Amino acid sequence: MTSLSTQHSALSTTNCPLCGGDKAPGKTTMTVELGYGIVVIRDVPAKVCALCGADWIDDAIAGKIENIVEEARKKHSQMEVISLKAS
Ligand SMILES: [Zn+2]
């Protein structure tokens, strides 16, 4: 399914630090507050806790999101909705 899962073993070997539940690969939606607006990033690959729904994002994905947020900041859009779905 996912090609991004192998680099960070810490993500897959530890249980949720919040509730101890199992983490499973999944997708999440991130909302980043810019002050004057927000950026919504959908279809973000993440490890999601099966019990409480907390999510963790890969460093590589976090970098991508930073770039997206930076672009949105330059555009000064009040609301930007972006899908990270791999094309
Ligand atoms: Zn949890």
Question: Residue share in helices?
Answer: 25-40%
Order of helices and strands: HEEEHE
Ligand catalogue? zinc ion
At CATH level 3, the topology is: Ubiquitin-like (UB roll)
What is the 3D shape?
elongated
For the secondary structure, the number of strands is: 4
Structural class: alpha+beta
Work out the count of structural domains.
1
How is the secondary structure organized here?
Layout: H1 9-13, E1 23-33, E2 38-49, E3 55-56, H2 59-75, E4 79-83
Parallel strand pairs: 2-4
Antiparallel strand pairs: 1-2, 2-3
Structural descriptors:
elongated; 2 helices; 87 residues; binds zinc ion; Ubiquitin-like (UB roll); 4-stranded mixed beta sheet
Please characterize this protein's 3D structure.
The chain is α+β, with helices and mostly antiparallel strands and 87 residues long. The chain has one domain: Ubiquitin-like (UB roll), CATH 3.10.20.860. Helix content is 25%, strand content 34%. Strands 1, 2, 3 and 4 form a 4-stranded mixed beta sheet that branches. Bound molecules: zinc ion (ZN). Zinc ion binds next to loops.
